[in-house]
Design brief:
With 303 residues, the protein is of the alpha/beta class. It contains 12 helices and 9 strands. Strands 2-7-1-8-9 form a 5-stranded parallel beta sheet, with helices on both faces. It has a 4-stranded mixed beta sheet with strand order 4-3-6-5. A hairpin with a 3-residue loop joins strand 5 and strand 6. Helix 2 packs antiparallel against helix 5 and helix 6 packs across helix 12. The longest helix has 34 residues. Bound molecules: guanosine-5'-monophosphate. The site of guanosine-5'-monophosphate (5GP) has 15 residues, from strand 5, strand 6 and helix 9.
Length: 303
């Protein structure tokens, strides 16, 4: 007779796997329903699925994806697939570089023909210390002036080259507490146990009212608060290509003392564990690719 230990785990695994499979199928069905009803745009689903293989969208077969587009039938779907030379069994997350390129061009043309307008999004860019959030955000601002990049308030001292109102609003502890009490911050947190940081609410709301996409470059505690207060916000986790590279970037920056570096790396371990809470993961191996992927997720494809 097999011992209980040898019997139980496979059963548990099978049940868990079949539950996970059902949940994944339900999630993909919701994505298709959102596409058919126009609640989500084709490019939005496409970029979510092709940028990060772990997303629900990545598990969608390209054929199902095309067939879920508004008013596309079976024969039209097969015509499109053969014109793009993409196999019906390919999943969005499994498309190669060339396939992604031809599919994106086709989807852009399709969206223009059907007058499908991208909606502005709030994208929260979070990730571990020194991963390059600031550099990626700066690249996005440089190339996409219509994106509103939120300027945070902080109680830390300015570093050389930083100016008030551009890098941060540098405020006193008292002023920060007043902003919190007055409800002026969309989210706020003490980061690395050192200083307080928060996102001023009014500029974000004003930008959205003007139809602009908004980018928040904040820490994970802040990202969690935004998820609560703005469930429609998209949470993007910026990953380093490797842990060694993260340590190298932190050392190369030369802005922290050894003690601060150790503290930041300790925080980074916990931060990396939080990546599964995010909607999408972008690897920052190369700044322009990472910046373009975040732009794709911002819903401003026509710029
Ligand atoms: P630094 O002091 O290096 O500029 O930023 C330290 C950390 O604070 C970074 O992880 C940065 O993303 C985070 N941070 C910057 N602004 C905000 C904010 O408004 N809210 C939160 N929660 N974190 C922020």
């Amino acid at each position: 007779m097999r011992s209980p230990e040898s019997l139980t785990p496979p059963d548990v695994d099978r049940v868990a796997a079949s539950r996970a499979g059902v949940l994944a199928r339900q999630a993909r069905a919701r994505v298709k329903a959102d596409l058919s009803s126009g609640r989500r745009t084709p490019l939005d689903v496409f970029y979510m699925g092709t940028i990060d293989k772990e997303t629900v969208e990545a598990g969608l077969r390209f054929r199902e994806f095309i067939m879920a587009l508004p008013s596309i039938g079976v024969s039209k779907t097969d015509e499109i697939l053969s014109s793009l030379a993409i196999s019906p069994r390919k999943k969005l997350g499994g498309l190669g570089v060339v396939q992604r390129g031809v599919a994106a061009v086709w989807l852009r043309e399709f969206s223009v023909r059907r007058h499908i307008v991208e909606v502005p999004h709030v994208v929260v860019l979070a990730g571990p210390t020194a991963v390059g959030k600031g550099t990626v955000a700066a690249r996005i601002r440089m190339n996409n002036p219509s994106v509103h990049l939120s300027v945070s308030a902080t109680t830390r001292d300015p570093r050389p080259g930083e100016s008030d109102g551009v890098s941060y609003y540098f405020v006193s502890d008292g002023e920060f507490d007043r902003m919190v009490a007055a409800g002026e911050l969309l989210e706020h947190a003490t980061v690395h146990g050192q200083a307080k940081y928060g996102t001023p609410r009014a500029p974000v709301e004003a930008a959205l009212a003007e139809g602009k996409s908004v980018l928040l470059e904040i820490d994970i505690q802040g990202a969690r608060q935004v998820r609560e207060s703005m469930p429609q916000a998209r949470l993007v986790f910026l990953l380093p290509p490797s842990w060694d590279e993260l340590v190298r970037r932190l050392n190369g920056r030369g802005t922290e003392t050894d003690e601060q570096k150790a503290e930041r790396l300790a925080t980074a371990v916990g931060e990396l564990e939080a990546q599964s809470e995010f909607d999408c993961r972008v690897v920052n191996a190369d700044v322009s690719t990472a910046a373009q992927q975040v732009v794709d997720l911002l819903g401003i494809h026509k710029e």
